[in-house]
Give the backbone structure.
Amino acid sequence: MADPAIGAITTYDPHTNAFDTGACREFWIRIPGLSAASAASTAGPMYYLLNPFAQDMVVLNALAVITTVDAQDGDIDCGLGDSAAGANDGAEIIDSLVNTATGVYECTVVQAPAGGAKAIWKKSGTSTDSYLCIAQNGNVDASSLQWHLLLKLIPYEDLIGGEGTQAAVTVA
C-alpha cells in the first residue's frame, strides 16, 4: 500500500502564484555598497528604493553584511516609507544597526506565533510604504561603515491566494 498523500504541490514557476500551483515564490534581493554618514541625516533617508516588484511583498527576513566597521554608533534604521523623502518612514526592518563588528547579522525579529506582523512593502504607485528607506539617526561620524543589505521577500498574493489585494471589507 502506498503512503497516503496529504496534498500535491506542482513544479515551481516564478511567474505563477501560489493560488495556481500551491508553491509560494520567495525572493532574495541584494542592495550592495551601503555606507553611513558623517552626521545624522536631516533631509530624509541616506538611501531609498521604490519596490521593484509589481506587487506587494512581505519582508520575511533581512541580513546586514558588515564589511568595514565603524567605532561610532551611527544608529542606522531601515524601514518602509511613503516617499523618497522618507515621509512616515519607520524602523520595522532594522532598528539601530550595530556596526562595531564585521559579519552577517540577521535583522528582523522572529515573531511569536500569536503576534507581531511582518512588514509589507507596497507596490509602486501605492501611497503608503512603497519605499524602502535607510536613515542614520545618530549624530556621529560613522562614515567608515560599509555594508550590504539582503532582503528575503514573498509576494503577499501568494499568502492570500487569488482574492485580490489587501483592502478593507464593507458589510452592508
Q: What stands out?
A: Strands lie at 27-35, 47-50, 57-68, 76-81, 94-97, 103-106, 120-121, 131-136, 146-155.
